[in-house]
């Protein structure tokens, strides 16, 4: 996720671009840059680091012109650095591009362009775009852009400047947001509404495979095939603070709703019909067979993601997995050697305890796979291999979309390992992967079908002092994270237990009116979970169940939240979503500081 801005009008572009980038800095803060059309050409100014680094440069010398584009970066391809910063230009500097998204076939395109003599200065996927435009340009920038994007696979929102056609910006969108602001004799581009809200409240919202051409005399919109469109003007009535959150009351809610896109980005380019592939590393069967144990090491929500990962890897690949809390790991002198594979999970890639576990494990000879969200982070650099979750910036302290990204990657690893070992045959693999591809749309369905019902039931939870979560197998892994989410943001005491353990002590805490939330999605143990629900109801507890659509054997429950049918292994993604919403709306009812809960920080960089 990155932020894009653009301006064409009568005013000086650079200050407007910088102002817009400040409104979008939550979308990325690894580096930033602007490009402004000057009399003699296009001036580029870009810098690694947060936006104030760019601002300091512009205070010294700012390009002058009334047409420009800008970008604030969240690194995906290539570490944070000034050369990898946007905007990027073609080899000869005739075309300049900013881009939000991921070009999945960039390497193939890059290699072909290199053979044709095009030069690349960065590690990014984006740089193929201006060079493709240059290749196809024959006097018409719009046509060159159309031909270029026709070759791109993946997601993108792009804005293009050209020395050849100076008073013009061309923008295209596919699977990444882009809006066009309509002002008085001036026009704007933004990834999100906040970028342009100080200047206009009239916008075009581009849909997938649509193009906009901005000139001084106005804006025209087209399909990428060239058919002119008659777009409806959307009038924004949000407050500025709401606009940063996309119209949501809190970043956490926005990030819950972004989870379909998170999963989509996480699996894009990594799934074939029957296999999982990673561009970052490869492992042969002989090497995998040498590992007699896997550790998944992490903290907090990342640790809880490892519980799902353990279940999936053991289920499919039949390799013993231990999930270890990073803050305890190195102090117990772990039994780790060259026959151990250590998977470390950290959203920020800077978690101090997890980083210590990386170094301890490497010293003992283990191979390290890092699962991170932040490109170029310390854990990403120090791991032997790294898999990025591509969730984009997560602003709320309580993780939602990053957690979904973490478990998605661990599902991918489970399939990958099982295929290497020959334990997952083509027909079964094809069925799981087919189900995986439907998960993004099913997350949307879960939200649409359950959000209103969850809001209606909040009174049953918000005034309680204790709430319990139960589940079996994979469902037990899910409720660990669900209870943590409720504690983090609502400050209600919540605990999760394997459902079968209720009778071993916890049942003493269940009395009339106590809420118990049961996740029951696994067919092989659902009868056992239902028996545990009956135990709760016999003590007058109030039971809410998360179940698969059509589940009928639930006469004893008080409330139910449903998820669509999917492969049994993948329910861990879908069943998480209503429980995130439940935690969120309970915290809203209790008037808690949801995005910044007390005593907590987003990235824990001290032990």
UniProtKB/TrEMBL annotation:
Q: Which residues form the SIS domain?
A: 283-423, 454-597
Q: Which domain of life is it from?
A: Bacteria
Catalysed reaction(s) here are: D-fructose 6-phosphate + L-glutamine = D-glucosamine 6-phosphate + L-glutamate
Q: What is this protein called?
A: Glutamine--fructose-6-phosphate aminotransferase [isomerizing]
**Lineage from the top down?**
Bacteria, Bacillati, Bacillota, Clostridia, Halanaerobiales
Kindly list any coiled-coil regions of this protein. none
Q: Which UniProt keywords apply?
A: Aminotransferase, Cytoplasm, Glutamine amidotransferase, Repeat, Transferase
Described purpose of this protein according to its UniProt entry: Catalyzes the first step in hexosamine metabolism, converting fructose-6P into glucosamine-6P using glutamine as a nitrogen source.
Which residues catalyse the reaction?
2, 602
